[in-house]
């Protein structure tokens, strides 16, 4: 077992956070409880901003361009923006703490929503895409909030803390899309297209998310844990940004635990996005109503977030790798159930629910394993790299899933997604055997 400031020692490399000056005992526990409350509040408030515009972004692009095929660009650009901004926000967290990194993410997203509103008022299409790219910062901040939950958590409670922040995303995901109607009412007096009204709510929600983090996330969990500090912003031995990123990648490559967590996290996300994004198309082609399609996606979202506290407890009690393996088994089961459903709707809905549960398992356990398997000197950069990889693979999965669906059908898409589970499963088993 190594100290928090030293590189991980193979094969486990799990951090202990015992470096001098780090909060300990009752003080640490009290700050951790406060940190979780603040992060959950920020996720709920700002998450409403994401949920409200995700359901209307594609409609707005279609309204401005008159092209249904371009409507999907909104989600793609938000995902791409999250991938591009994850590392800079992580670097900012390292230099100035979580308040700066997370808060800046919410502010950049608010600026992006303002750009969308101005462009929609002018009827200009290209600036809307720029705004969507900036809104990706909200996704990046959302993802990095889960790591902030583990900065001061005790080793046996890290997955549980992370899972609570993941769970809080449920509120925005469920309630946000229901703001489409009120958004249209707001849009009319402002001279905006109907779908643009929800972006007004997004601006308010993102600014409130920044305000919650900026004013209440004190003391800063990352700085209190002795991980990030302005005095060490240049990294070990005065390394620059590019050198730190290369060192972080080498650090992950040298740790079987970190590789296992990263691979499970990234590929699990790719599987989920690929299948989920094309399920509405498959159901519509088989005559499902919009209410059935909406219900299926709602059940999928419930599987992703609602059960995450139970997943976190399991990861703390049973171990990270067993829960990762469980999640991969659930993902394979989900693709088998949905892929063989044909025109039947209930197996697709059940498969999408299990797809969400499997994603929750690999995300909670994989993120926790990755975060605790790297030394403090590289942790923020590794977290940023993992989120970048996660979003890039998700974007690729969403982009190519339509082609696979068209060429090989929904069953072929699920079969291809199941194959993606194999590398992370093999790596997890290798990690178990190496430790033994």
Automatic annotation (TrEMBL):
Stored Gene3D superfamilies: MFS general substrate transporter like domains
Membrane topology per record: Multi-pass membrane protein
PANTHER family in the record: MAJOR FACILITATOR SUPERFAMILY PROTEIN, MFS PERMEASE
GO MF term list: transmembrane transporter activity
Transmembrane stretches, start-end: 38-61, 73-92, 104-122, 196-217, 254-276, 288-311, 323-342, 348-371, 392-410, 416-433
Keywords: Membrane, Transmembrane, Transmembrane helix
Name this protein carries in UniProt: MFS transporter
SUPFAM superfamilies: MFS general substrate transporter
Compartment annotation: Cell membrane
Record InterPro entries: MFS, MFS_dom, MFS_trans_sf
Region Disordered: start-end pairs: 1-24
Any Pfam family matching the protein: MFS_1
The keyword Membrane is assigned to this record: yes
GO cellular-component term (any): plasma membrane
Domain Major facilitator superfamily (MFS) profile: 35-436
């Amino acid at each position: 077992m190594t100290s928090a400031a030293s590189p991980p020692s193979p094969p486990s490399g799990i951090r202990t956070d015992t470096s001098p000056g780090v909060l300990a005992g009752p003080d640490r526990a009290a700050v951790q409880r406060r940190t979780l409350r603040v992060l959950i509040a920020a996720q709920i408030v700002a998450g409403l901003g994401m949920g409200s515009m995700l359901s209307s972004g594609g409609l707005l692009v279609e309204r401005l361009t008159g092209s249904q095929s371009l409507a999907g660009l909104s989600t793609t650009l938000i995902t791409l923006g999250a991938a591009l901004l994850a590392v800079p926000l992580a670097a900012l967290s390292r230099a100035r703490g979580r308040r700066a990194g997370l808060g800046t993410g919410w502010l950049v997203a608010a600026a992006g929503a303002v750009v969308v509103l101005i462009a929609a008022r002018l009827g200009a299409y290209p600036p809307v895409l720029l705004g969507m790219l900036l809104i990706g910062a909200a996704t990046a901040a959302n993802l990095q909030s889960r790591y902030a939950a583990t900065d001061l958590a005790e080793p046996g409670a890290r997955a549980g803390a992370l899972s609570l922040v993941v769970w809080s995303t449920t509120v925005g995901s469920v309630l946000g899309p229901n703001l489409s109607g009120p958004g249209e009412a707001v849009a009319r007096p402002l001279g905006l297209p109907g779908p643009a009204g929800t972006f007004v709510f997004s601006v308010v929600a993102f600014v409130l998310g920044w305000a919650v983090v900026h004013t209440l996330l004190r003391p800063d969990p990352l700085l209190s844990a002795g991980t990030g500090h302005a005095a060490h912003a240049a990294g070990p031995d005065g390394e620059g940004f590019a050198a730190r990123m290369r060192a972080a990648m080498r650090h992950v490559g040298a740790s079987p635990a970190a590789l296992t967590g990263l691979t499970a996290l990234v590929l699990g996300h790719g599987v989920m996005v690929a299948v989920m994004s094309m399920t509405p198309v498959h159901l519509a082609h088989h005559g499902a109503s919009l209410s059935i399609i909406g219900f299926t996606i709602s059940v999928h979202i419930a599987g992703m977030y609602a059960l995450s506290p139970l997943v976190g407890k399991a990861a703390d009690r049973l171990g990270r790798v067993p829960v990762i393996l469980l999640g991969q088994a659930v993902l394979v089961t989900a693709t088998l159930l949905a892929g063989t459903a044909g025109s039947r709707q209930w197996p697709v809905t059940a498969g999408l629910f299990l797809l969400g549960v499997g994603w929750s398992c690999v995300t909670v356990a994989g993120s926790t394993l990755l975060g605790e398997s790297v030394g403090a000197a590289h942790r923020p950069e590794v977290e940023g790299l993992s989120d970048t990889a996660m979003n890039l693979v998700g974007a690729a999965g969403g982009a190519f899933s339509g082609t696979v669906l068209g060429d090989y059908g929904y069953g072929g898409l699920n079969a291809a997604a199941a194959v993606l589970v194999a590398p992370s499963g093999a790596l997890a088993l290798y990690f178990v055997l190496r430790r033994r």
